[in-house]
Specification:
heterodimer, A: D-Maltodextrin-Binding Protein, domain 2, Dipeptide-binding Protein, domain 1, Dipeptide-binding Protein, domain 3, four-stranded mixed β-sheet, 19 strands, 19% strand, globular, B: 326 residues, mainly alpha, two-stranded antiparallel ribbon, 14 helices, 4% strand
């Protein structure tokens, strides 16, 4: 009987403590109790939503240093904070940026950029001159900076190799003619040279701020002083990144948002969107049925835009049995891409016939694809006599977690069903995957390619030219090389695209890749947000956005 | 006793650096022998392999592991624990400590709730032995202790966030109170604290119940009862006190676990704590960060265990008289 009393006392203490602490929590957090059922409009940490503020879900970038960024997440912040000679507008058209205009020499190797004379750094400290470009571009190429992307985008420059190897103190191809004029000389004419200059490695950084910081010293980036449409107001690691318009920005339209807040901590973006915590969200397989339902109010907020990227399965074309093009072709013919795109991916992706995404501006990407034909695939594979060699072959994919990629599961099931071969999916941690793919220690692998700039060259030359470091399959076809070499020269656009078109068709016929899907972005945008489109690849877009709330 | 205890404590403290060396070397070697490193992972498939090799060389990543380890220890002894890789180039402590603070706040609250509820609940269940409440409560404890957070979090999220809209969608939010960033006073803290308390209470109550049952069967309890002591006095003064003894070890573990964070809860709810950080760091081969987390965790664990042992020395005369046999 007394024990009961004790228990009452103990539980009473516990319960009252919970009530008191719980009540305190609710009181202090300003939540009006749990009974009103209303969703919380803004998290208490953040200052109340400002008029004209855009809130999105974000991630901590790996770096905000333009010389060092090799991933899309980092680049998407950098293009809003910094800028360079040229950039892409939202229609993917190359436009003058800090460069007002430029001349190209007759042989196509000397570019003379005339800079805008009115561009100031966001902190008002001084104006941007040709010297700043020389400093910034050399910094990207300088081995001491330890950038893995500098030479990828700037090795066209004359003297870049000598500079990287330490044989020269500066890049001979970068010349400051006067504070307003920059001359860049490249080794050979390159139709995509200007495109490459839109990458952050050519963006202007403030040498007074950066000094000799390399990619492993990020302290300055927390106060990054750039020339982009926005400036960094606050980077609170793991919590939020806040951008504010750069009052010195020089291109029209100028930023209309009063502030952009990237919420870095948080759960599912889709749920946050439904709770009015963010203004835009991506839509995945799990939610797409909900938003496509025309009776659902979210349906009116649903948008899709093409994305310049392709996902594919690559073969090691130097390893049996994949050195036989017919084996590769038979495997390609046995995959029902339409089924994968429509059923597995609920039409969030488009089945890919060729290599270059159909929305590539100015490029006709209609190739004659390898069509799904299980019977012909089986006949073709049997004719090679190598069907048995395929059993136990592994297809590498990057990832962690119990269930591997369901696309690959479906693909291997199709191969099993249509060809009677059993191919395994091997999931590897990203680091291991990269090193295996780099060293060619794979039979097949699954990967994607995202455009750096909107040009067929970026997909075809980089992935299929003999000896290119991005050519992971080891594919080599002299006919294709010849076409790609010709397209590298200074020739009319139409002729160039024709060459790429021929090269693409030959690649598709040889099938070193099985192109699977072209990606599309599917997302929701609140009705009070205008001008928000997910771009086809990373370009500055926030200055086109308005929030009427 | 004080001299014995002091020498015991000193001896234990002297072992700490040895343990740290062993643990850190194992963690270091495991990290370095894992395929890939942060340079190649960050470079991605597009970088020039020669450039990647050059940077690995510049950063000393192609040196023998023992050399790299020696360099790490040397730098660490000078207070330089390296830089993080995501974000790249930020001193590890600048990334780690804010994350640690988040986890500590959650876990202190969880620990408090767990003990305030778990101990009385376990005692109550034990005293109800023989009634239907006993198997019922054991079943309930077992159920909540065994349902993984991987299940409870999405379920609660669906109900409390999605359907009822009472709570925000995961994440973490803070406010400055007296210059300190406090996060547990926001609604964001409710779900993680609740979920972790639920499984904690279930586990602790289950343990407490069995301890109390064991003590109840002991002769001195019967003696106390037969002496005519009041029931609550017996329970308070004899049963609970004695049952709590072995549980102090659990408290020590939980105290050490304060900085551990829950990888699952933090990952599922997007809470920027140490658990999520550790998970991310392994994926990005953030060597210095992994080492810092391992070293910090080990240090705190070893020191807490030492505190527990010392506490036993004060509480339990049997341990005290046994001298320094630890």
């Amino acid at each position: 009987m007394e024990t009961r009393k004790l228990v009452y006392v103990l539980t009473g203490v516990a319960v009252s403590l919970i009530v008191v602490i719980g009540g305190l929590v609710l009181l202090v957090s300003g939540g009006g109790g749990g009974d009103d059922g209303s969703s919380s409009d803004s998290s208490p940490t953040l200052p109340a939503r400002q008029q004209g503020e855009l809130r999105v879900r974000g991630a901590d970038p790996i770096t905000l240093d333009p010389a060092c960024a090799s991933d899309a997440d980092s680049a998407s912040y950098i293009v809003e904070l910094f800028s360079g000679l040229v950039s892409f507008d939202k229609d993917l058209k190359l436009i003058p940026d800090i460069a007002d205009h430029w001349d190209v020499s007759d042989d196509g190797t000397v570019y003379t950029f005339h800079l805008r004379t009115t561009v100031l750094f966001a902190d008002n400290s001084r104006r941007v001159t040709a010297d700043d470009f020389k400093y910034s571009m050399e910094r990207s190429l300088n081995p001491d900076t330890q950038s893995t992307v500098g030479d990828v985008y700037l090795d066209d420059l004359a003297g870049a190799d000598d500079f990287i190897a330490g044989r020269a103190d500066s890049v001979s191809g970068i010349k400051v003619l006067d504070p307003d004029t920059l001359e860049l000389t490249i080794k050979a004419p390159d139709p995509v040279f200007l495109d490459k200059l839109t990458y952050p490695t050519s963006f202007v950084v403030d040498k007074n701020q950066v000094k000799d910081a390399n990619c492993s010293d990020a302290s300055w980036t927390f106060r990054a002083n750039g020339t982009g449409p926005f400036k960094l107001a606050n980077w609170d690691l793991g919590n939020q990144i806040v951008l504010e318009p750069n009052p010195n920005y020089y291109l029209d339209p100028k930023p209309a948002l009063s502030r952009v807040t990237f919420l870095i901590s948080g759960g599912s973006s889709f749920t946050m969107y439904q709770n009015d915590e963010v203004d835009v969200t991506g839509v995945g397989k799990d939610n797409v049925d909900t938003v496509r339902d025309t009776t659902n109010p979210l349906n009116a907020e649903y948008h899709t835009t093409p994305s310049l990227s392709v996902s594919y399965i690559g073969f090691n074309v130097n390893k049996a049995p994949f050195d036989d093009p017919n084996v590769r072709k038979a495997l390609a013919m046995a995959i029902d891409k339409d089924f994968l795109a429509n059923n597995l991916y609920k039409q969030l992706l488009d089945p890919a016939g060729g290599i270059v995404p159909p929305d590539m501006p100015g490029y006709d990407s209609t190739v004659d694809p390898i069509k799904y034909d299980p019977t012909a695939a089986k006949t073709l594979l049997d004719s090679t006599g190598k069907a048995n060699d395929l059993n136990g072959v592994k297809i590498l994919t990057a990832g962690q977690g119990a269930a591997p990629d369901d696309v690959l599961e479906a693909v291997t099931a199709m191969w099993q069903q249509n060809l009677g071969v059993s191919i395994e999916v091997e999931q590897e941690d990203f680091g291991l995957f990269l090193s295996d793919v780099d060293q060619g220690s794979f039979e097949m692998f699954s990967l994607g390619w995202v455009a750096d700039y909107p040009d067929a060259q970026n997909f075809l030359d980089l992935n299929f030219h003999t000896g290119n470091s991005n050519n992971k399959t080891g594919y080599s076809n002299s006919e294709v090389d010849q076409l790609l070499d010709q397209a590298r020269t200074d020739i009319p656009e139409a002729q160039r695209n024709d060459l790429y078109h021929q090269a693409e068709q030959t690649v598709v016929d040889d099938e070193p890749w099985i192109p699977l899907f072209f990606a599309r972005s599917s997302y929701l945008v609140k009705p009070y947000v205008t001008g928000y489109d997910v771009p086809a690849f990373v370009i500055p877009t926030l200055r086109y956005v308005t929030v009427n709330k | 006793m004080p001299s014995g205890l002091a020498s015991y404590v000193i001896r234990r403290l002297l072992i700490v650096p040895v343990i740290l060396l062993i643990v850190s070397f194992v963690a270091f070697a495991l990290g370095r022998y894992a395929p890939g490193d942060y340079v190649s992972i960050q470079a991605g498939p597009r970088a020039n392999p020669e450039t990647v090799a050059r940077i690995r060389h510049d950063r000393g990543l192609d040196d023998p592991v023992y050399e790299q380890y020696a360099r790490y220890v040397w730098n660490a002894l000078h207070g330089d624990f390296g830089v993080s890789q995501h974000p790249r180039g930020v001193p590890v402590q600048d990334v780690l400590f804010p994350r640690l603070w988040v986890t500590v706040q959650i876990n202190v609250l969880v620990l408090a709730f767990t003990w305030l509820i778990g101990i009385p609940l376990g005692t109550w269940a034990a005293l109800k032995r023989g009634t239907w409440l006993d198997p019922f409560s054991i079943g309930l404890f077992l159920f909540f202790a065994s349902v993984p957070v991987l299940v409870t979090v999405p379920l609660l999220e669906w109900a409390l966030v999605h359907k009822l809209g009472w709570l925000p969608t995961g994440g973490w939010s803070t406010r400055h109170i007296l210059g300190v960033k406090i996060g547990i006073l926001s609604k964001h803290a409710i779900l993680p604290v609740f979920v972790l308390t639920l499984s904690g209470v279930a586990g602790l109550a289950r343990y407490m119940r069995s301890q109390v049952l064991e003590v109840l069967d002991q002769d001195f309890v019967r003696t106390a009862r037969s002496k005519g002591l009041r029931g609550d006095v017996v329970v308070f003064r004899h049963v609970v006190r004695n049952a709590l003894l072995p549980i102090i070890t659990i408290f020590g573990f939980e105290l050490a676990g304060l900085i551990g964070g829950s990888i699952f809860v933090e990952t599922l709810l997007g809470i920027p704590g140490v658990g999520l950080l550790a998970f991310e760091s392994v994926g990005t081969r953030d060597y210095d960060m992994i080492m810092a987390i391992v070293l910090l965790g080990t240090t705190i664990f070893v020191l807490t265990m030492l505190l527990v042992d010392i506490a036993y020395g004060f509480i339990d005369p049997r341990v005290r008289s046994g001298g320094s046999a630890g």
